[in-house]
Amino acid sequence: MAIIETEATLHEAHRDNHTHRDVNGGWLRPAVFGAMDGLVSNLALMTGVVGGAVSHQTVVITGLAGLAAGAFSMAAGEYTSVASQRELVEAELDVERRELRKHPEDEEEELASLYAARGVDAELAREVARQLSRDPEQALEIHAREELGIDPGDLPSPLVAAVSSFGSFALGALLPVLPFLLGVTALWPTLLLAVVGLFGCGAVVARVTARTWWFSGLRQLALGGAAAGVTYALGALFGTVVG
C-alpha cells in the first residue's frame, strides 16, 4: 500500500509540474516586439532630432508624433497580419472539413498512414485512426495538427495582437520622450532612461526564453544603442548640412 501511495504521489507531482507555457499565444510576441520597437525607434528618432540641434518644443512634438504614429502603425500591422494568417488557417480547415465529409474512408486511411509512418504497428494504427474518426470535430482537430501543424482551438486573436502591440509600443516609446515632457533639455537623462529600459526589456524577455537575463538585456542594449548612435550622427550631419 505504501508503494502504491508513493507512486500515486509521484504521478500527481509529475502531472502538476509537467506543464508548458503557451508558445502559440497571440499576445506575447506582439507585446514584446511592440515594446522593443517603440523604445528603439523613438529613441533613435529623438536622438536624430536632438543631433540636428533643434528646439526643445520640436523634440517633444517629434517624440509624441513618433509615439502615436508608431503605436497605430504597429496595431494596424499586427491586426492585419494575424487576421490574414487566421483567415488562411480557417480556409485550410474548411478544405479539410470538406474532405472529411466527402471522403471519410480516405481520410481515415491517411491518418492511419501517418501513425504507421511514425512507428505504430499498421494494424494498431488503423484501429486508432478508426476510433479517432468517429467524432468529425475530433477528426478535424487531429488532421489539422498532423497535416497543418496547428490547433484549431488555439488560433491567435487579431484584436489581442493589435491591443498588445499598441499598448506596448506606446509604453516603450514614452520612455525616451518622458524627460523632455518633464522639462529636461539635455539628452543624457533620456539616454540613461533608455539604457535602463532597453536592458530591462531584454531581461524580462529572458524570463520566457532559455537565455540568461544579463545576456538578453545586454543584447537589446547593444542593438538599441547602435540604432541611437547612428541616428544621432546622421542628425548631426544633416543639421550641419541644412544649417
Relevant terms:
single chain; 243 residues; mainly alpha; 9 helices; 81% helix
What's this entry about, in short?
The protein has 9 helices and no strands.
* Overall average residue pLDDT: 82
- In N-to-C order, the SSE pattern is HHHHHHHHH
Stretches where pLDDT falls below 50 for ≥5 residues? none
Globally, the shape reads: elongated
Total number of beta strands? 0
For the record, give the distance between the C-alpha atoms at the N and C termini, rounded to a whole number.
88 Å
Helix/strand/pairing category: mainly alpha
- Give the biggest beta sheet: none
What gyration radius follows from the Cα positions, in whole Å?
26 Å
Q: What is the percentage of strand-forming residues?
A: under 5%
State the helix count: 9
Approximately how much helix is present in the residues?
over 70%
Describe the structure.
With 243 residues, this protein is an all-alpha fold. Helix content is 81%, strand content 0%.
Write the layout of secondary structure elements.
Layout: H1 2-17, H2 28-51, H3 56-102, H4 104-117, H5 122-132, H6 136-148, H7 158-181, H8 188-206, H9 213-242
